[in-house]
User: Fold these one by one.
Assistant:
Number 1:
Amino acid sequence: MSDKETSDVSAPVDKHENHPSTRRNILVEGLTAILSFLLVAVPSTLGGIFFLDPILRRNKAGSAGGGELEGFIKLAITSDSVPEDGTPVAVTVQSDLDDAWNRFKDVPVGSIWLRKNPDGRILVFNSVCPHLGCSVDYRRNEGDFFCPCHTSSFDLDGQKTNEVPPRAMDTLELLTATNGAVSEGGQELWVKYQNFRRATAEKIVI
């Protein structure tokens, strides 16, 4: 074979001489893929947590009471503050409320009347008139409950005394507790505050 023919023969390619650059390329591509994933995943995760935060807080917060007091709201008045002579006392019921993103502390959710019987038992009435929803007042001189809107009237046990209201005043459940634990004779008063359908003879929770 001549020198010319020999010079025309291509030298064999070393398949291993590109391995370092190939490894670098793979490493760069891998790092790029990881960074791209993180750039998408981290904001998406944080956004999801932000979106679910109100639900998580609401579930964590739960209701005002727990255990036996689940669904009950602690009143700002104690049992010894209710007059022993049976005089009704008006109390505003306050609770923490959540909207989509905020929690509001001690928001008024309604009002009630408390009255102590001679045996010491405390009666609780929703102050909303069962007729058409006006607020029921206490008339000291007449010794009764009275709705000024449509002249519904009730005795101090909540029973209607004329034909205007469709039913008696709506009573509510009350528990006494000590340091958040239900106890007979406890000073804390916890009420299960509810509203009821108006203008019906039946007491229907709404």
Note: DSSP finds two helices and ten strands in the chain.
Number 2:
Amino acid sequence: MKLIIVSGLSGAGKTLALHSLEDRGVYCIDNLPVSLLPAVAEQMPTLSVSSPCVAVGIDARNSTLQALPQWLEILQEKHIAYEILFVEADTEVLLKRFSETRRKHPLTLIQPNLSLAEALTLERQMLSVLSEQAAIRIDTSQTNVHQLRDLVRLKVGLNETQAMPLLFLSFGFKYGVPQDVDFVFDVRCLPNPHWERHLRSLTGRDPAVMDYLSAQPKVRDMQAHLSQFLHTWIPQFEADNRSYLTIAFGCTGGQHRSVYMVEQMAQHFSEQRKGVLLRHRELS
């Protein structure tokens, strides 16, 4: 069995991540004192009978956070498998979320003289010991609740299928490259439907855009070459016991070419394997 240590910035979605695991039968404990990690790990077989893992939430409220490295060493000495999942978001996004919900940051309850911005900065520093060692990082700056739940289950490996899950992701380079991906393919060299006035307001999901792109030789060539590349290398990642693989396609705005390519790739691989997901970041 494996111990999942779930942590992250306040407002980024740590509680939602725990709830997502709990919904899949994982035994979850929130705000666990780090000194109890070895005890919980040793009791995992009795705590969880329906899931191969137990999850514990650790955040900046933990008064013994600075002692975490030594407790992680104890887990290693006892040969207890563990994985750190860290949920984060841009500071501007977190400030907006706290403003919209009118909730107080947990650290401001402990230190009332802190401003929200100061609390977020202090929290990042306090949790750096976790974020730097995290095997799984999820940035929720542009992710909604439903997408976060899917990403958590995907990356922890709790999908119903035994095959390694694949997530195909479209995005726009003008809004930043996603960080939690394994492959990034740039499709900005392909013909751009944006310059066709009748296609500009549509997306890569619309039949008119799909017809336009499928008729382009460059698009067909890139799709064939990348499909062959992925068919060659996905089995190598599976053989390396990877729990998931995220493959991103980016164009300028994330509306046409990247969306089309993700739709085509997801459909192609869904015909041959289970556990294929797709997400269009900018369309969300």
Note: The first helix runs from residue 14 to 23.
